[in-house]
Amino acid sequence: MKTYNITESVTFNVYPGTSGICVSGGADSALLLYFLLRYSTSTVHIFSLANQEKWLRNTHASIDVISKCAELTDNYNFVHHIAYDTVQTKENLFLLPIKYFNDKIISTIYSGVTKNPPFDVMNTFTLKSLENSERDPTVVRPVKIDYGYMPWTNLDKQDLHAIYKQHNLLDTLFPLTRSCEWINHDWPDPGIEHCGKCWWCEERQWGFGKL
């Protein structure tokens, strides 16, 4: 394993063997992919899940993010796998990468999960998070569990903002990311833009100061 210091307090590990990474097109996984392509010397398997409930919008964002990360790192040694389903669940989100792990095609699955904002911040959001138990900002979680590596798990969106800024990615990579999880048919369809109303848009606005 090789460890790289990406800030004074945040490190990034590249584990032996072929890596897999889940890329949704959001700001978290985009930053993770950037560092994996920057430091990895092995083939990277990239996994995205497109679902009809979100009109496949995240798939378009993931393709743009992957292209930009390859351009910025000059690393094109990757394969992009896109799975399709009607809706996204925790089970089908990791179904394909876990299969690749069990088949010994990849040895580590990188995931860009972050912790939630502080509770006093979340209480100001219009909608409530359904992920408090897994992203509780008061709980310190291990970054490596079995086959999974989650270097951002104890960081929030403001922490990621600082990393984007330090590595000059705010004007290049960040604008291509899409964090919106709009599925409410009672709201006007935002198209590929951020709706600005869903919980994830509010979290993004809090962390980065813009959508």
How does the overall form come out from the CA principal axes? globular
CATH class: Alpha Beta
Task: Please count the beta strands (DSSP E, at least 2 residues each).
Answer: 8
Mean pLDDT: 89
Give the distance, in angstroms, between the N- and C-terminal Cα atoms. 35 Å
Report on this model:
The protein has 211 residues and is of the alpha/beta class. The protein has one domain (2-179): Rossmann fold (3-Layer(aba) Sandwich), CATH 3.40.50.620. It has helices spanning 27-39, 57-73, 90-93, 95-102, 119-122, 157-166, 199-208, and strands at residues 2-5, 11-14, 19-22, 44-51, 78-85, 108-110, 144-145, 148-149. The strands form two sheets. Strands 5-4-3-6-8-7 form a six-stranded mixed sheet, sandwiched between helices. Strands 1-2 form a two-stranded antiparallel ribbon. Strand 3, helix 1 and strand 4 (44-51) form a beta-alpha-beta unit. It is globular, with a radius of gyration of 16 Å.
Task: Kindly summarize this structure in a few lines.
The chain is α/β, with parallel strands linked by helices and 211 residues long.
Top keywords for this entry?
211 residues, alpha/beta, Rossmann fold, two-stranded antiparallel ribbon, 7 helices, 31% helix
Question: What does the secondary structure layout of this molecule look like, with pairings?
Answer:
Elements: E1 2-5, E2 11-14, E3 19-22, H1 27-39, E4 44-51, H2 57-73, E5 78-85, H3 90-93, H4 95-102, E6 108-110, H5 119-122, E7 144-145, E8 148-149, H6 157-166, H7 199-208
Parallel strand pairs: 3-4, 3-6, 4-5, 6-8
Antiparallel strand pairs: 1-2, 7-8
Helix pairs in contact: 1-2, 6-7
